Amino acid sequence: MRIFDIALKDLRHSFRSAFALMFMFVIPLLTVGLFYLAFGGLAADEGGFDLATIHVRVANLDEPPEEVTGFSAGEMLTEFLASDDLANLLAVEAAPAAAVARAAVDRQEAAVAVIIPPDFTTAVVEPEGEASVELYYDPTLQIGPGIVEDVVSQFVEGLAGSRLAAEVAGRQLSEYGSPPQPQRLREISMAYGDWSSALGEGQPEGTSPLIDVRTPREAETENLLTVLLRPIAGGMMIFYAFFTGASASQSILDEEEAGTLSRLFTTPTPLSRILGGKLLAVFATIFVQVVVLMTLAALVFHVGWGETLPLVLVTLGLVVLASSFGIFLTSLLNDTGQAGLVFGGVMTITGMVGINAMFTANVPGGSSVSTIADTVALLVPQGWAMRGWRTVMEGGGVNDVLPTVAVMLMLGGAFFIVGTLRFRKRFA
Amino acid sequence: MTDDSAIHVQGLDKSFGDIHAVRRISFDVHRGEIFSLLGPNGAGKSTTISMLACLLEPTGGDALVMGHSILRDPMAVKEAIGVVPQEIALYEDLSARENLIFWGKMYGLRGTELQRRVDMVLDIVGLVDRQSGAVSKFSGGMKRRLNIGIALMHQPDVIIMDEPTVGIDPQTRRKILDSVKAFNEQGMTVLYTTHYMEEAQELSDHIAIMDQGEVIAYGTHDELVEIVGELDRIDLTINSGAARVLSEWRATEGVHHVASEDGNLTLLVEDSNVALPRLFESANGAGVRITSVDIQEPNLEAVFLHLTGRALRD
Q1: Global confidence as pTM
Q2: Of residues B66 and A361, which shows the higher confidence score?
Q3: Residue A138 near residue A108, CB atoms below 8 Å
Q4: Residues of chain B with C-beta less than 8 angstroms from the C-beta of A263
Q5: CATH match for A54-215 among 3.40.50, 1.10.3470, 3.40.1710, 1.10.1740
Q6: Looking at per-residue confidence, does A43 or A14 come out higher?
């Protein structure tokens, strides 16, 4: 019980200190918050890019041939562009003539003018037919016209499939000695179009029956901002958790200088329990810090930390490693005068080396930089913690984090044993 | 060792490298008495107390506290004693009550017994009204009282107080001395260290005078004073030139000891009425002016001077 009494007393001391609270919670969150604000313009709150609606003028000049009844490729394209599926993306208005559509672009009332040529349907149904859909847009605009071009191309490729189907059918019929009539080929082409259209309608919105798009589970719900913030939030948490480990361990030196540690030794409380209580307080302080930071980062900045079980494992590893490293460093010091210098220097340098992945994780094409930085980071305990955290945040499972957590626990155990042995010798 | 010994010290010795801080000292503290270790700074008092409180391991000898060896059964010794350190050792960010609760728990107190003892000690040290306030806001005197109160939490058989009145105002000092007497009246054995002769004289049933790691005298106040016999003590202040009169005064008939510090001289003489005219005469001859004279009955200061040739304040 006395172990817990000592630990509770130290915890109360830590959490009553405004300075400690600043270092444990405010500064890490503030840092992440600054990055959040800095990157905030790149992404929307709900995820994905917040793209403005593209205004499109469509001049449908298509005149289907008389023998083609009930089918107009130009009308299909116009309806496709104005369909509900694209309503969030495109605002389509019909223009009576090509000049009117172009004029709307010139007046910047529309981003793109889509001009469907008169022989558009003919080009679709006649094997030899050719036609081009004209896209007229302001060359200074990039995204809007590009999207419209993709949409139109997708539609035209669909029609090309119909024509291809008619050509293949015609060639096969000819090989069997029964060359098809033009009307028959048009019917085949339109039948293919109907089948293709029906197949598409039977699929969920935005999917294709022929393409199975798979994304990492986490990536489904996260946006660019949270991807950028993840390593930063993890790095800051690790950086300050190690500071807390050192700072909390310093209470042993504080008590030694204040005389309360000597006084504790005059009570019938064994040395092992006194040290045990103080070390337990260090563990508990970091544990609370890490849990609170993770929770707040998730709630405020929507940072996804990964799956629960591997997250628990790396949290355990971080708490053990940060506590033990603090205890080990403190055991090397004679007094609190040295502590400020050593903690400030050692923790800052090892911390920056260890969490450098925070800065290199999202460098485009920076794989060689990242590899070197990752290797150097493993020279310090913070680097192992960062590695474990990144693994979890990038979707790693238990098996993925186990080797790193094992190293973290072994390093932590070594620091703990050396540190406590030094303290026991010192106070024996 | 006698049956009523609360503390029995036998050949206790402590060295720190080449420094021999305590040299094979022996004494007994009887149950229910106030025992003072009197000596100047550096005499070895605090080292002795640290060994008795099991903070330092002796390099020789042993001591029994309430029958428990400090070497073989330190936990039982710690159960039996309450230690008041020379420096204030409190958790400043905790309240007085929180401090007492914490330290009470360190002595194994729990539940209603703990709360009862906290209330009792707060009453004893006069901090009931300030029990919820952070210690950091307390005056020096209040901290001193709480510092003492912590040692009382588990109602120890022996309370060890290491110079508890150093650096405090006369009013707080008076309160502390009165509280020491009160603890003793409640049956506690008190081991008290001081370099103030007056405190040892006022409080103690027995006194051990320490100097340079040794107990140089031991006994009751009267027994110790008898060491200097009928000698008078004269305290003199001179304006300057102590060196010009020291050797002559030491050779003066009827003068036994002369100690000097910063123009203050302490002499032990057989008869002050006879000695004083001779001292004035030689001072005049040497061109030294005597600015004050104080003649005192034999006391512990005189004993220390008699035994060491130095004043207790040295």
Answers
A1: 0.67
A2: B66
A3: yes
A4: 83, 85, 89, 103, 150
A5: 3.40.1710
A6: A14
